[in-house]
Design a protein that fits this description.
2 helices; 131 residues; four-stranded antiparallel beta sheet; globular; alpha+beta
């Protein structure tokens, strides 16, 4: 079974942002993103979207740590979720910057995700207790 897990690497209650990294494991790929900065409000938005998606209120959505600042620029971390078929199979496209030399962008699919995993991930993000 594929898995996604966020790890908080830094947060200061006085600032409206934190630093996270994400570990993604599939049958073929195991990757950890470089630590990326994200606004607390975007983390809360991801938690809400994951919960709505897990409860079948949303068919697909994309989330990234920050919007691109320049034409052609990618965020350091992006997730795109969609339901593959009526049986509830979930596909997640993962695009992340990995910490190797010179630091490249890796893109792949996690296809063996379940609603319960996404609901658990939403609860994990809520438990980070961001401002």
């Amino acid at each position: 079974m594929d898995d996604l897990k966020f790890v908080m690497t830094w947060h200061d209650a006085a600032d409206p942002f934190c630093q996270l990294s994400c570990e993604v494991r599939t049958e073929r790929v195991s990757a950890e993103s470089v630590p990326f900065y994200v606004m607390d409000s975007r983390v809360r938005a991801l938690s809400i979207l994951l919960s709505q998606f897990a409860r079948h209120g949303v068919r697909e959505f994309s989330w990234s740590n920050a919007p691109a600042r320049r034409e052609g620029e990618r965020a350091d971390f992006t997730l795109s979720f969609s339901r593959r078929d009526p049986s509830g199979r979930i596909r997640c496209e993962v695009i992340l910057r990995v910490d190797d030399e010179p630091g490249h962008v890796c893109a792949f699919y996690a296809d063996a995700l379940e609603d319960a995993q996404l609901d658990k991930l939403a609860r994990q993000l809520d438990a980070m207790d961001l401002c």
